[in-house]
Amino acid sequence: CDAMNGWRPEGRSQHGVTLLELVITLTMVSLLALIAAQAIRLGSRSWERGEKRAEAEQRLRVVSEILTQQVASLHPARALVDGKPVLAFQGLPERIFFYSAPDGQGPLPYSAMVRGQAYFVDPGRGLVVQESYPLVEGAVALEPRGALHVVEPAVIRVRFRYLAPPPP
Predict the structure, then answer these.
(1) Considering only CA atoms, which of 63, 44, 42 is closest in space to residue 152?
(2) For residues 35-50, average pLDDT
(3) Rounded distance, CA 151 to CA 68, Å?
(4) Are 77 and 90 in contact (CB under 8 A)?
(5) Which residue from 139, 162, 155 is spatially nearest to 64, judged by alpha carbons?
(6) Tell me, what DSSP letter sits at residue 74?
(7) For the segment 101-111, what is each residue's pLDDT rounded down to a tens digit?
(8) DSSP letter at 167?
C-alpha cells in the first residue's frame, strides 16, 4: 500500500498539520506576543514618566504662584541696622526674606498683621517658610524667629535671582 509509505495519489488533500508546522507557528505566535508585551510595557513606562513630569511641573507652578503672591504683597517694613532704618528685605541666591502685608487668612490676630517670611530649602524637609510677626515680637528684624512650616516637601533646591546686583 503506497499510502502507508507517505505517497498519496494526486487530488487528495492533506488533512492536519505536521509537528514542524506546529512548532514554527507556535514560535511565531510567541515572538509576536513577546513583541506586543514589550511594546505595552514600554508604553506604560512612558506614560508613568509623563505623569510624574506633569505632576512635578504642576507642583512647581503652585509653589511659584505662592511665592509670586507673597512677593507681590511685599510690605516696606523698616528695620534698624546700626541705628539706621533699612528696608527689611534679604535676598540671597538660596534664601529670600521679606515682610508682607496682612493676607486676612487664618486665625486672628495673626491674619491681620504684617508678617516676615523667609523661604528656603531645609534639607530633608523641602521648601519651608519661617514666619515672624513684628507686632508680637516687638520689633522688625532682618531674621525670622518663628517655627518652620513646610510649603513643598518635594523641593530639594531653590535658586532666587534678583534684578539689582548684590552690594559689594
Answers:
(1) 63
(2) 94
(3) 14
(4) no
(5) 155
(6) B
(7) 887 777 778 77
(8) P
Length of the chain: 168
CA distance 148 to 168: 30
Amino acid at 158: V
- The x, y and z cell numbers of residue 101, run together, are 502685608
d(CA 83, CA 60): 40
Let me know the angle formed at the C-alpha of 10 by 7 and 11, rounded to the nearest 5 degrees: 130
Distance between CA atoms of residues 23 and 137, nearest Å = 84
Q: What does DSSP say about strands 95-100 and 78-81: parallel, antiparallel, or unpaired?
A: unpaired
Strands 115-122 and 78-81: unpaired
- Each residue's pLDDT tens digit, 70-86: 888 888 888 888 888 88
The residues that bridge with 122 in the sheet, in sequence order, are 126
Which residue, 152, 162, 156, 110, is CA-closest to 131?
110
User: In angstroms, rounded to a whole number, what is the distance separating the alpha carbons of residues 138 and 97?
Assistant: 18
Amino acid at site 50: G
